[in-house]
Structures are given as C-alpha cells and as structure tokens.
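This part of the workshop introduces the protein records we will be handling. To make this concrete, we reproduce a full record directly below:
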Amino acid sequence: MSEMMGEGPDLSVVVPVYKEERNVRPFLDRVERVMVGMGVQYEVIFCLDPSPDRTEEVIQKEIERNASIKLVVFSRRFGQPSASMAGIFLCRGKVCVVIDVDLQDPPELIPVMYSKLQGGYEVVYAERRLRKGEAFVKRMVSWLGYSLINQLSEVKIPRNTGDFRVMTRRVIEELRRLNESHGFLRGLVAYVGFRQAGVEYDRDKRYQGKGNYNRYLGSLTIGMNGIVSFSSRPLQIMAVVGGLVAGCSFLIGLWYVFQKLTGMSIATGLPTMVLLVSFFAGTQLLCLGLLGEYIGRIYDEVKRRPKFIVDRKVNFD
C-alpha cells in the first residue's frame, strides 16, 4: 500500500451519482477551480449507479477533456452509501474527500478542511450551520435522529453532519478493514476514531433537479442504521419495557382479583379490553420489529455478499 500512496495523487474526490446529468458540469467547474487553486494533484472519481438519463454520457465527455476524472459504473443500483464506500476503497489519493454532486455542499470548503488536516487531524467533517431549502419537518426529523443516535449509540456521531468530509489514507485503510454490509459512512468513520475536527458551513440549496433520496424515509433509514449498527442498547430497553408491561399486567390482574374477593364493583366492558389488548399488542409488535432489524443485520452479515459489484471502470489504468 505504501507503493500506491507514493504513486497516487495528493487528493481524491469521491462523488456518488445517480440521475445527475445537469449537475455534473457545474460541479466540475467549481471543483476544478478549487483543485487548481490548491495546487495539488487530484483525481475525481464518479461512482455511478446505472442511470436512465445521460449522466454516464456527460461524465464520459468530461473524462476526454480532463484525464484526472474517473468513472466507476456498478452492475445495478446499490445506493448512495455503497457508492461512496466504493469510491473510498478505489481511490489512490493520500487524502480523500467525499462530496455530493448537487452542490449543496460547497467545493470551496475543501481547502479549509484540507488545511485543517495539517493540525494533526485524521478526519475533518463539515458541520451544517444553516440548511437552506430544507423543510422544518425535515430539520426536526434530523435533529431528533441525531439526538436518539447519540443517546443510544456507543459511537458518538457529530450533529448536523453528512458524508461531506476529508480523510487521510490512514483512515481509508482502516475503513477498508471493516466488512459491514451496511455502509453508514459517518458512523463507520466515528467508529474508526483518531483525532477528528469539524468545520462549520452554510449548506446551500440543491443546484438543479430533485434529490434521489426520500427526504423523510431516507432520514429514518439513516437513523435506524446509526442506532442498530452501533448499539445493542435498544435490545436492553426492549427487555426493560417487556418487564414493565408484564409487571403492569400482573398488577392489573391482582387488582381485579382483589375487587372480586372484596365484592367491589369491577370495571368491565369492551373499551377496557380493547385498550389493554391494543397496548400489549402494540408493544409486542414494536419489540418484534426491533428484533427483526437486528436479525436482518445478522442475516446480511452472514451472507457476506459484496457491498457493490463493479460493471466497469473508466480511466483507471
């Protein structure tokens, strides 16, 4: 690997893409200006889930113009997390930056993050100070998600961060050693550890088009990944809740027996039974669903399927 580090560029820019034909050119305009200003050797790796639009064609034309641009095309759509991990595994730079192509995360922040690495940090992540173009509900879901993750998870994930971050080769090699099927990058980087720091910025609106990730379901999926992948505490909470529910049921049963023996009027009726049955059934389903999440993760890990399958690589030789 030391040989690869010696031959590789100073900076690798990893960009997951899917249906982004209108954003590729504006993104490269800004990234290339930043790279020239930094005076570094670089590579831009587009990691493409097969798109029904002209995204691949646009990137191919940019490769003909700039030899520093590379393309990885997957055999099918594996999703943004897997695409990002693929770029990280395939990059050759001494430092790697992961950034989206929609320009919500400004490429002009890369020099600031890159320079902060010189202070002895291994990871510099971007913290969103202002999130333009996001609905109040989306911001609340994000805030609650990070709060829940950091309360339950054994690994603390910085608030208001995404995948936009700069990492040294040391961190990249540690990430390569992790074999988890669910590539929750911000959680995996936090798990790896080392000295990490943040840089605040105002997140812009998406440059063009609509996001290809469900705003609310996507946030819930990220939150679930953060909790289930890095903590077993929900299972402990589930056991406590089950004990409390069983205890309440036992006390209610004793109360009914006491009423019967003392001749007190017993509160009966369909509404009471419906409420009790609904409460207990809901608790059981919630616990079963949580167990299912953990069992599903075990199932995925046991199969040892690859995180991604590459169809072809362009301009890597």
